[in-house]
Amino acid sequence: MSITVADVMKLPSMRGAKVLGGADGLARVLSSISNAIQSELFDRVEFLGNELAITGFMNNPDDVELQCTNIRRMASIGEVGVILFYVGIVMKKVDRQLIDLANALNFPLICMPVGQMNQRYSEVICEVMELIYRDQMAGANLVSELLEQAAGLAPHQRTVDSMLRMLADR
Predict the structure, then answer these.
(1) For labeling, which of 4, 87, 149, 160 is most exposed (least CB within 10 Å)?
(2) pTM summary value
């Protein structure tokens, strides 16, 4: 697979989106896109990494410390970045601490156009998954792609079970 966060930024649904921090991580390869899991559910979900997360921080729009905790957790499990929706509406602004953390972790922090409610998660999800699907169908070397994806996982996630799930997803 060769779809990067930078490739996602070129999609029509990402028009007007800005990278606020973590730009050094734009070359990271992703395998999927998902809704970010908030802290209270984090320990109950199994992650395979290499996903681009989307969120509006609806559960904690004003809690910068918890937002930073969520960013650290996503980065620690191998997520490749996060797209923020509804900034200026639900989450009033992106705090400088989030931007600084994203820069320190090389974890792309992408903000959809501020103050716009007409942005939809589903539009971004569909376009990203279509891009990934087309890339997978054109890919010639499944084994090397799966190994590259596995290398991006946290060490405790590099198991046979994880590899089988990634293979099943393909």
Answers:
(1) 160
(2) 0.79
**Quick one: three-class SS letters along 78-129?**
CCCEEEECCECCCECCCCHHHHHHHHHHCCCEEECCCCCCCCCHHHHHHHHH
Please answer whether residues 149 and 47 qualify as being in contact, where contact means their C-beta atoms are separated by less than 8 angstroms: no
For 90-126, write each residue's pLDDT tens digit: 999 999 999 999 999 999 999 999 998 888 889 999 9
The residue type found at 46 is E
3-state secondary structure of 2: coil
Angstrom distance (rounded) from CA 35 to CA 21: 19
Q: In whole angstroms, what is the distance from residue 101 CA to residue 61 CA? A: 17
- Write out pLDDT tens, residues 4-17: 999 999 999 999 99
DSSP state of 36: P
